[in-house]
Amino acid sequence: MSIISEALKRAHIEAVRQDRVQARLYRTPGVADYPTRESRRRVALALLATNAALVGIVGFMVWSRREAPLRSASARVIPDAPRALPAPAPSIVAAVPVAPKEQPREAPKVPSPSAVVSERDGLVAGRSYSERLTSKRGEELVLSGITIAGDRGAALMNGKVLWEGERIGSFVVNKVARDRVELQYRDIVVYLRLP
């Protein structure tokens, strides 16, 4: 009988093993397995890591966008024209005071209206251009949109988003208003407005 009982025992163990394999291969549709504590921990840890990564990426994007005008090497500040220095005080040559000769004063020169307007490469200083601006050098800007976020503005020009202080070609975006963009081109300021 021991041989028979051993054979039955082996058959039972083999049947249990096959049932386990079959249960893994063919699950009944619609019947959910209850999650174990370990699988819940893995899911929670994966969600926590994903959220931390997303918060880090969004935080970096906000930080880099906010710091961009300060770190931008292409944004160049155009200095003002040099100012004349005051004349040095005259040195005393003689102890006897000499009265200066009076010369008749000329009337102040009023510049003609054509002299006030400055032009650079076909662009007139202070002029407002509608939607498209082209210089004689062939540089063209097309204004597609304007947005203002807080105290900073951005303009969509030539398919690129440009914040205040950034450069596109020979132009620097000075200021973005609700309906127009102030641009610095060399030593003149021009405006590009939406239609």
What can you tell me about this protein's structure?
It is built from three helices and eleven strands, in the order H-H-H-E-E-E-E-E-E-E-E-E-E-E. It is of the alpha+beta class and 195 residues long. Among the domains are: 37-71; 119-193, SH3 type barrels. It starts with a helix and ends with a strand.
Quick overview of this protein structure:
The protein is an alpha+beta fold and about 200 residues long.
Terminus-to-terminus distance = 102 Å
Radius of gyration equals 40 Å
- What fraction strand? 25-35%
Mean residue pLDDT: 77
Order of helices and strands: HHHEEEEEEEEEEE
Q: What name does the CATH topology of the domain at 119-193 carry? A: SH3 type barrels
Query: What does the main sheet amount to?
Result: 5 strands, mixed
Shape descriptor reads rod-shaped
Strand order of the largest sheet: 3-11-10-9-8
Which percent bin holds the helix content? Answer: 25-40%
